[in-house]
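Field: sequence (string)
Field: structure_tokens (string)

Example rows 1 and 2, in order.
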Amino acid sequence: MKRRVVITGIGAITPIGNNVDEYWNGLKEGKHGFGPITQFDGTDYKCKVVGEVKDFAAKDYMDPKAARRMARFTQFAVKAAKEAMEDSGLDMSVEDAYRVGTCIGSGVGSLQEIEGAYDKIITKGPSRVSPFVVPMMISNIAAGNVAIMYGLKGKSIDVVTACASGTNSIGEAFRTIQYGDADVMVAGGTEAAVTPIGISTFDSLTALTSSTDPDRCSIPFDKDRSGFVLGEGAGIVILEELEHAKKRGAKIYAELTGYGCSSDAHHITAPEESGEGPAVAMVNAVNDAGISLNDVQYINAHGTSTHLNDLVETRAIKKAFGEHAKDIKINSTKSMTGHLLGAAGAIECIACVKTIEEGYIHRTRGLIESEEELDLDYCKEPYEMKVDCALSNSLGFGGHNACIIIQKYEG
């Protein structure tokens, strides 16, 4: 029998808030985090609008010396993990450290470290490259640093599935606990790809928005959408086996009940246009949760604001849910945060948790009018309603489709 898994802690750092309360209040207020590039000179770049984390100083959350040996994406993960661990009340001094693990994904690791090392080679020669470049740039090092900080000696992994990394990481951590390989997992995703390589390469793919208006740059499901806004940040959740959480008197936010995946096996960047792949992932997650398709009330969509993604995801929802698709509330957190790549699914999982906790579905900011085929309820306005079952979608380059089901905890 699979063990039940609950969420007992949450932590976030995003373009609209540097902790969960700020992030969630920003979503409720319809606040966006978009503005000009500040981390480098963006004069010669086509893309002019990004979603940067603001007012972040790593030394405020961790040892300054340790922070200097972490890339920005790792610092974000450590900060979010700190908030989540404190929120959970988990006391590692009384835990079996080999039963507590980590699964924190990143789509690209540290482009900053790669760029810096290459510049050092060109300007000063290869002998001047720092020995810390590799242990700062590799995508698994976020999980490694979180494990080191808290002495987490259980399974420690990093799932890399591009924009599905955060959701896959939470899903794989869920499976780890379900099947008895751990009692607690620190899981989520982190990313900091607002760099010259990050901006220029996504721009050359024509994936980034052509808009220069911060109020109309990330507009998922709108007929005028032109691409996504690159964001940064991290989301971490503490997943815990139910009886373990009850024994220590933990606060239980929600229960993670289903996880489904599929692959389009179609194209390195473009989704297969029928939507069959994401539809299968959603159905798999629903079946894994042991619920009916009609039980799903709310979907936090991948919703990137690219023409093809929003169209294909709509087709997938219709294919998976049939007539019930018209009754589901669907929104896109990316309308306010931008696309956090490997961290997107993690902060969107947290949005689902807060939606269930507060009975509030945030609006899809900037959505005015959709084209004919996009005819579902994409939440032009927020809803106040009781939500017992939420689904979160993530779709990644390479055809990766990942989906999780979060439900209200019923003892």
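Row 2 begins here:
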Amino acid sequence: MRILLVEDDAMLGEGLQAALQLEGYAVDWLQDGEAAWAALATDTFDLLILDLGLPRLPGLEVLARLRARDTDLPVLILTARDTPRERVQGLDAGADDYLIKSFDIDELGAHLRALTRRRGGRRNPLIRHGAIELDPATHEVRLEGRPLALPRREFSLLNLLLENAGQVVTKPRLQEALYGWEEDVESNTLEVHIHHLRRKLGKQAIRTVRGVGYMIPGESE
């Protein structure tokens, strides 16, 4: 999953980016509202974590512009503004969730997973598909009931493919979900991850759609 983090506090932003990357997210971090809006207008993200007290362009204005485009991008407001009036204002402006500073990183992770489930139309915290069971909260995978250890990026790749089971996920979309702006990516890195997953899950688990991307077939296929 690719997250845009917009936070002007350098210490907090750097810490959040590092912590979320360890959880398997691809995180791009910006520190002002104008830069955030430019990124949102030209790039693709799965989720936006947005501070309100931003320089150059307030967070609520970024949110208003985003919702004016009729996009369903999930938005989590992360702010020190904790009065009921300000929470109502943020939610009414189009935010999907609201988290007050300070907070525990595990709490933030739980909010992000809830937003992801909601967007995907899932209620069950576990993702089950055939013989595969994946737990986004604990990063545990089971194949036919047996634990399957996966490195961070293989887990993230499998998670995304399972969330879109039955649909082709393009190569650019998969790469965006795995790597942020500042990370160097070899041209065949995605193919290597797919190869490793097939070796662990079975050759038929992931289908190649030539010239487009990859997919996990639906349950009925």
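free_text_note (row 2): The first helix runs from residue 10 to 22.
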